[in-house]
Design a protein that fits this description.
By secondary structure, the protein is α+β, with helices and mostly antiparallel strands. Among the domains are: about 65-70 and about 300-369, conserved putative lor/sdh protein from methanococcus maripaludis s2 fold, CATH 2.40.420.20; about 80-85 and about 215-295, Beta Barrel (Elongation Factor Tu (Ef-tu), domain 3); about 120-180, Orthogonal Bundle (Helix Hairpins), CATH 1.10.287.470. It has four helices and 21 strands. The protein has a six-stranded antiparallel barrel. Strands 6-5-3-8 form a four-stranded antiparallel beta sheet. A three-stranded mixed beta sheet has the order 20-1-21, with no helix packed on it. Strand 18 and strand 19 (about 340-345) form a beta hairpin.
């Protein structure tokens, strides 16, 4: 019995000894676990990657510059107009009648006083002859009665009647002569016949056109000047004239007249410019452009028109400062041909970029050519 109890006691102790390590926790891992952990392969170390690329150097733009300095600039006014002959005459018939003769043809040159047409001259000549014959008869009658009166054969009253009759007939002669002369149409100016309206045999009414005559030795150009600019113009001022149909021709004209009253519809003032045209290069009816010099600004700051850059509706000029481009918002004034006055935004001595300005921006590095 004792032997059985001893065997049970020994078995129980062995079981208790086997459970003791588990009751102590996981503070010490088993030897074989530590060995596995120590022998496990290490994670590969991160290899250094390729070096980051460096920033490219800033682009340098080659530009051309112009030194800003005060200069004279002219304020000109350019207006269109139509050329007209300085003298333009429309000859008309002074009385009804049949056209008996027409002298010059279209394009012919005539002088002042030249006879150019006859209207109903034959009938008028007959009336004049009758009046002259009646006058001669009245003159003879008066002379006879004058002798009779001196002999006291007739009274003073009869002599006065004869004198009155003579006076009436003389008046009729002058009247017939005046009508007869109206049948002869003469030119009042040296001119060129521009158009003939009648032929021999046609009937023309009083006031009817016979022919047009123009003198183109001087050309008149009419322009309409706005009310804001008319104060700059005065008779005698010079103006440059160019004709669209004659691109290689220009002439210097003189202001002949400036209207004092504006046109109520356009609010403009009529100005007449005269141009010498003895070579007859300019023809009436051509379109001309007249350049009026309003004033000269002696110390303006100017820039080429092509140097202006438009960015989002804002006018800019670029200047060079310390090797970089700087944008300058500007205000413009007078424009003369290919340059413009800069009233705000530029200073004397600025290096204005005039070539390459469209390739730069604020802060762009530049190389001056």
């Amino acid at each position: 019995m004792k032997r059985i109890f001893r065997s049970l006691l020994i078995g129980l102790m062995a079981v208790l000894l086997g459970l003791a390590p588990a009751a102590c926790g996981d503070s010490q891992p088993p030897a074989n676990a530590r060995e596995k952990k120590e022998t496990s392969p290490k994670a590969p170390e991160a290899q250094p990657g390729p070096k980051a690329k460096t920033e490219p150097e800033a682009k340098i733009v080659r530009v051309g510059v112009q030194l800003v300095a005060p200069t004279a600039i002219r304020d000109a006014l350019v207006l269109p107009g139509e050329t007209r002959p300085h003298k333009d005459v429309a000859l008309a018939a002074d009385q009804d009648g049949r056209v008996e003769w027409v002298g010059p043809k279209e394009g012919d040159q005539v002088k002042t006083g030249d006879l150019v047409a006859k209207v109903d001259v034959s009938a008028l000549k007959a009336a004049l002859d009758n009046a002259q014959a009646s006058t001669r008869l009245a003159e003879e009658l008066f002379q006879r009665r004058k002798v009779l009166f001196q002999r006291k054969i007739i009274s003073q009253e009869e002599l006065d009647q004869a004198r009155t009759e003579l006076t009436v007939q003389q008046g009729l002669v002058r009247q017939a002569k005046a009508k007869y002369d109206l049948g002869f149409i003469h030119t009042p100016i040296d001119a060129v016949v521009n158009k003939v309206y009648v032929d021999p045999g046609e009937f023309v009414a009083r006031g009817g056109k016979v022919m047009d005559m123009v003198n183109v030795d001087r050309i008149e150009i009419g322009v309409n000047v706005p009310e804001m600019d008319v104060r700059y113009l005065a008779p005698g001022a010079q103006a440059l004239v160019r004709v669209d149909a004659l691109p290689d021709h220009q002439a210097v004209g003189v202001v002949d007249s400036v209207a004092y009253k504006a046109d109520t519809a356009t609010r403009t003032f009529a100005v007449k410019v005269l141009v010498d045209n003895t070579d007859r290069t300019i023809r009436p009816g051509m379109i001309a452009r007249v350049f009026f010099l309003k004033r000269t600004i002696p110390d303006a700051l100017a820039a080429p028109l092509f140097a202006l850059v438009d960015q989002n509706g804002e006018r800019l000029l670029y200047v060079v400062e310390n090797g970089v481009a700087k944008a300058r918002p500007v205000e413009i004034g007078v424009i003369e041909l290919d340059r413009v006055q800069i009233t705000k935004g530029l200073q004397p001595g600025d290096q204005l970029i005039v070539t390459g300005q469209k390739e730069v921006q604020e802060g762009t590095r530049v190389d001056i050519q």
